[in-house]
Structures are given as structure tokens and as C-alpha cells.
Structure prediction request, 504 residues.
Amino acid sequence: MSVTTVQSNLLHPDRHPLLRKIATIAEPTEEERRALLNLPFSIKSLPQHADIVSDGDRPTQCALILEGFTCRYKLTHAGKRQIMSFHIPGDIPDLQSLYIEVMDHGIGAVAPSTVGYIPHDAIRDLIRRYPAIAATFWRDTLIDAAVFRQWMMGIGRRSAHGRIAHLLCELTTRFRAIGAAADYSLDLPITQVDIADSLGLTPVHVNRVLQELRRDDLIELRRGHLRIKNWDRLSEVAEFDPTYLHLTQTAA
Amino acid sequence: MSVTTVQSNLLHPDRHPLLRKIATIAEPTEEERRALLNLPFSIKSLPQHADIVSDGDRPTQCALILEGFTCRYKLTHAGKRQIMSFHIPGDIPDLQSLYIEVMDHGIGAVAPSTVGYIPHDAIRDLIRRYPAIAATFWRDTLIDAAVFRQWMMGIGRRSAHGRIAHLLCELTTRFRAIGAAADYSLDLPITQVDIADSLGLTPVHVNRVLQELRRDDLIELRRGHLRIKNWDRLSEVAEFDPTYLHLTQTAA
DNA sequence: CGAAGGCTTGATAGACCTCAAACACAGTGG
DNA sequence: CCACTGTGTTTGAGGTCTATCAAGCCTTCG
Prediction:
């Protein structure tokens, strides 16, 4: 997908990823929306597995996800990977680099992705002029933290079944919030290895649990497409309560 | 401990918990320090196990830890507890409630503690007048998130040994940063159950691992007192790298 | 001295891991 | 059109780290 294609189709105010995302966690004024649209950025396409930012970097810009699917991860000395969050279009996963100099983790493309790099200076200038946007950005990083906490509880205290079900509920809810999921069906370019690395499990075990979830007719997941066949029972298994996502409009 | 005692001893500018804490993550000007000192708050003493803020609350104030030791936690439906962070004097664990209406977790006293409740309005006013303080507070919540990430990796991908060693390294480093640990020796009013709940383990297993760490002459931990006997080897076991704490002065 | 909270120990069990190989499927190239 | 390759998924057998259950023990404190 070429840069021009992206710019002409994707960045219309009505479907600009950043505005869509912001609308899920705040209610910006028309002027603030315009200011957000005017943020300068340089677009870059990344292949699967490429790093958007690397552990140890000292970024001078933030990455806005425009298309694709990315993750935040860390490696142990033994080389084991822990994924700490997934990001969808509209997210700015390294917003924190505004106030934390050194990256203590990496952000990588789970699927081929397009990102817009926004200079720190531009963001600093924006939030200086629009305190409400500063508050929204701060809020966004706080919601990130809320998601970390939810994942921690899952990894630390819940069964593999519950964890996997919960992850699928969370992603579905977030995709629906930005309007990227028709009904309970969505494109989810994720592998079983990715799921394993995000939940502290092995791919083998993830595979076995997914089979059970399919057998119980709760989900359908293959070739990058997820369909929740029984939302009520799945969210029950997951003990899913979307409060922690702190969405303004909680799309049921 | 009475309120008067606290006020007369603890809140001298030179040893005010909030100023000490802030100094570990930022470099406020004299004027900003004064403004921080002038924050109004009402002091309250809490017994062990009392909630400072509860899951589901909609706080209108933030809690500054003045004395003691508290934790952030969540319960599963089955009643299992996951502790997500520990807080020491100077911390404001629910600073996030400024921008996130509903608490998605509780904060409780691990040991008897004294907290100062600061009205949201006072904080909002402060950060409106001092953008640098706003940045510092934002940074503080970002560092909280960094700690969550570090814990997630531990729980998801590391052995019980590594996790326990890491927790002890982290707490020691943080206590040292605020000047609450002489050398590698500190008062740590924590039970083995608390450790288990913070690392996704059972108390029984924590007990066994602690015994090994003692046998290997790495630590001494009993009756609320921790002494690291071999920092180098312990941080090796822990794969401890304090970068993620983002302290301004990294006390070795 | 009794009670309570925390720590320790032993025996057993199970969820999840490890290793290893086979299978499915899409894309590529001859 | 069909091998060929690569990535991702599935299956099987065995192993282990950590959980569970159940007592007993030690301090502290009223």
C-alpha cells in the first residue's frame, strides 16, 4: 500500500484513525479536532516483525498507528518474549516517550503496519496550547496502565482458558469501539505464538485451549479472522468487565 | 501515632515524603517545592488491611502515603488476589483518579499506614499553575506503568526464584532512593502471602523459595526486616536492571 | 496462658511445559 | 500445473514446576 493511497483514503477527518480513537476516550471540541488533524507526521510502512521503536531507544518522536497491528514487548535474558499490549489504528503506543527518556521495551509490528511518526516538539506544542488535549493524552496513558493491570491479574491469577477468552473479549471490544469490527467479527492478524507470548503461555497450550473454545462453539479463529459466536458465554468464561478500558461510550 | 506527632516530625520540608519522592524522579525548582508543600490534605491513620480507596469508587481526592506500606490489588471472581504494586511514603498511588473517574482496583494498607488525602481540586489547580509539576505527575504515572510492565514480564515469563529476587531488588532500590534504607537493610512490613499475591504464586511456594535464597546466603528476611546479603548475586538471579524505574539519580 | 497471625513442613496432584514430529495452506517459481 | 518453501497449526508422549490440602509450629500480644 503506497503512501498516497493511505493519505487519500485513510486520513479524511471522518475516518482519521487518531480522531476515531480519541473519540472513544474523550470528547474533543471542533477546534481541538482540527488541531489534532494538523499534527505533522511522516508515514512509514513496516513489514511484519519490524520494530517501530526498540528497547533502549531515546525517541524524539511518537508513533501513531495508522494501519495494522502492533505490540509492546520485552525479552528476558533467556530470550523469552512477553507481549504487554497490542495496538490498533489510532493508538500512540509510545506516547510515554514524551516524559520518559529511555524506552524500557520495544514496540513491534505483529502484522504489516503503517505508522505516522510525530515529532515530540509538535506534540509538546499542541498540549501546551490545548490543555484538554494534554488531559486526554494523559488519560490515554492511564488507560494503557489499566490494561497492564488487567493483564497482570490474568497472567498471575487466572487459568489459561480465562486468559485467552479475556484477551479475545478485550480485542473485540476495542476494535468495535473504533468501528473496525462489524458485529462480533473482525480481522485479527495474530498468531498463536503471539497469543502465547502475551498471556505467559506456550503456543502448544494456546492451541489446545483454542480448540476447546472452538469445540464449545464460543469462537471461530483462523487465518487472521476472529468471530465470537457466543459473546455472553465467552465473556463469562473470561470474567470480562470492560470498565477497565474506560471507554466513553461503552458499546455493548 | 497521633496526627500531631506526624505533622511536627514528618512534614518538615527537608524530610517531607512527597518532596523526597519527587526528587527521585524530577528536579523541581524552589518555587515548585513550596507549591507542593502547600498542598492541603487531611491526615488519616489506617490499620493493616484497611482500604485506602476501593474498587468501584469515584474518588474526589488523592491519597499521599505518609507512613507505612500499601498495595494496589484486584480480586478475581473466585476471590484470588493479585497485587499490582506496592507503595511507599511519598507515593500517590491513585493519582490516576484525576483523569479516570472509576477505580478499577483497590488500594489497601499492607501495614498500618498514614495517608494524606488531597482534594482533586487542589491538585488540578496546582498543575494548572505549574506545568512542570503536571509533567512530573504525568511522569510518575508513566513510571507506575513501567513497573506494571516489568512485573508482567516476571509473572509471565520468569521462574519463581527470579520473580522473588526481582521484587526484593526493586523494593530495596526504591527504599534506598527515598532514603529509607540504610545500606541494603530495610524495614519491609510484608508477609509471604503478600509476596505470593504480588507474584502470582502460592504462599507455600514462596516460603520454599525464600528458604533457598536464605540458604544460599543471598538475603535475610524475617519479622518485617529485609537485609540483602549479596546484592550482586541477587540482582543476577533477578536479572535486575533498574532502568525501568527511571530514577533521576540511580543510587547504585 | 490462650488466641491469632504468620511461617514451615509433608504428601499428593494437576495445569502447563518441553521436545519432536507431522500436517495444512498460501505463495513462489519452474 | 505441480513440486517446493515457509509460516503457522496440530498431535503425542513425557516431564516438572508450582498448586493444593492438611497439619504442626513459632511469635507476639492481650
Q: What stands out?
A: Residues 131-157 of chain B form the longest helix (27 residues). Residues 191-193, 203-204, 207-208, 211, 222 of chain B lie near DNA strand C (CB under 10 Å from a C1').
